[in-house]
Automatic annotation (TrEMBL):
Gene designation per UniProt: Hydr2_0
UniProt cross-references to InterPro entries, sorted A to Z: AB_hydrolase_4_sf (IPR050960), AB_hydrolase_fold (IPR029058)
GO BP: acylglycerol catabolic process; medium-chain fatty acid biosynthetic process; medium-chain fatty acid catabolic process; sperm capacitation; steroid hormone receptor signaling pathway
Matches recorded under PANTHER family: ABHYDROLASE DOMAIN-CONTAINING PROTEIN, MONOACYLGLYCEROL LIPASE ABHD2
GO cellular component: sperm flagellum; sperm plasma membrane
Gene Ontology terms for molecular function: acetylesterase activity; monoacylglycerol lipase activity
UniProt keyword terms in alphabetical order: Hydrolase
Recorded coiled-coil stretches: none
Family: Belongs to the AB hydrolase superfamily. AB hydrolase 4 family.
Protein name: Abhydrolase domain-containing protein 2
Superkingdom, natural source: Eukaryota
Length: 79
């Protein structure tokens, strides 16, 4: 991680920075993004952001067990 933020559920800036740095170092690498649970949400959000310039090396993505309504989950979770 490069930020001091502990909760990244709705943020994709961290992912973008990591991918950008990786592609700068290895420009010929093809990437498939994989996210599980919250990571799946971040990957899907990142790929769906309309004003985001993404590296052209991203060939696809896989989202596994992603939640679809984080607000509802938090509201109904019993601690």
């Amino acid at each position: 991680m490069v930020t001091s933020v502990g909760e990244l559920a709705g943020q994709s800036d961290e992912l973008h920075l990591m991918l950008t740095k990786y592609v700068e170092a290895r420009p010929d690498t093809k990437l498939i993004l994989v996210g599980f649970s919250m990571g799946g949400n971040i990957v899907c959000k990142y790929l769906g952001e309309p004003n985001r310039t993404r590296p052209g090396n991203i060939m696809g993505a896989i989202s596994i067990c992603q939640g679809y309504d984080a607000v509802k989950k938090v509201q109904t979770e019993v601690l």
